[in-house]
Every structure is written in structure tokens, then in C-alpha cells.
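Input record (one chain):
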Amino acid sequence: MHTVSTSCRERFRPQDFTFIEQVFTGGRGPSADLQSLFEDPDSLLAILDHDRLSQAVLEQPNPLAISPEFYFFVLVRRSMKHSGIDDAEIADYVAATLAAHAGGRSMGSSRGGQPDLGFTYYVDFLRELEGLSDYDRFFLEVQCGNQFLVLTGLFPKFLEHRAERRGAPGVNYYEGVARSAFLAAGDHPLADEFAVRTIYPRLAECLSETRLALNRMAEDYLFLGS
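The corresponding structure, as predicted from the sequence alone:
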């Protein structure tokens, strides 16, 4: 069954809310006031945007204490806001894409800074498109956009080194590939069913800024290797 991961916030786990309580109560236990705020999306977003929480996530010694979805949402939202992109839905989508990559749900894991993404050349994507139904084409466009978002956002050095060694296209080219894929998927009839009709055009519009925000995030926090 095809799925499109669009939100980390919808996948937060109980331990994530426990972590928030520990950060803001100093470990004194559950807080009824905080728990009531968790039920309101705007209040929860304000909590997630708090500098104290993002610092606690960055200093967290036990990664298993929080979910990948929580981790990536806090970091992506912080990085994108610092880059002037104050769109929580876009941050949520990008974070969900990175969490899926980290968990191997739609893309493989990375080793030594080398991405394992199913396809890393645009020609591979074009080959996959051949003979597909209109229905399946939508999901391949989504996969293409997501994979080149991850590739250009988290692994720009991989693309740069490949371009230098083999004369392959560079980061800007694949950013354009991702943008075109998101626009095509956003214009597809299935975009409404998977709630991406308005997300993809907005993501495409700010993709350069988003990619640069992810570049800085990867360099500062993720230590993916060269």
C-alpha cells in the first residue's frame, strides 16, 4: 500500500511528551498545565519552538529517549526558522521525509556520508517512469522529490565530489529535479487524497532556502561524514 509521510507531529510518541515535561519542569514529573497545552496545536508548536527545548534535544545523551520524528521536527523547524522560513507545515513535511530516510521506510540508511537512496541519478528516475500508470507516476514523483531533497540537503558533498570526479550534475541541478518532481506531484489528482496539494507548491517555492538550511543543519548537528 502506498503512503506519503507528511507529518512528524502526528507521529509523536508518549516518550516525546514526557521529554518535554522533563525539560520544562526540571524533572519534577507530569504537569497538568503542560498536558493541556499539548492538546492545542498552536500551543504545542510554541512549545516545540522554544529555545530551551531545542537545546535539550541537541544535548540529549540518550537518543532513544525521543522518537526520530520528534528529533527531526525540532531540528528542522529550528533550522528553517533561522533561515527565514516560518512555515510549520513545510518544516513538518521535510522533517517527516528525513525521519523516513533515517528509519529506512522509503529510503536506505547512510554509511560514511554516502547516501543509499534507491536512485541517485536523474536518469534512474526517468527509467523508472517508463510504462507506469498515472496512479503509480504520482508516487514515483513523490519519491523522486523526497530522495533528491535528502540528497541535496544532507549530502551536498557527495554530489560535489561526484561532479568533480565524473562530470555528473551538481547540487543545483538536483535541487531543480526535486522542485520539478514536487510541482508535478502537487498538480496530480492524488495530491488532494494525500493532503499535499498546497504543501508541494510552497515547498518548491522555498526549496533553495530549505536546502541551504538542511546543509547547515547537517554540518552543525548530524555529523554525516564527508
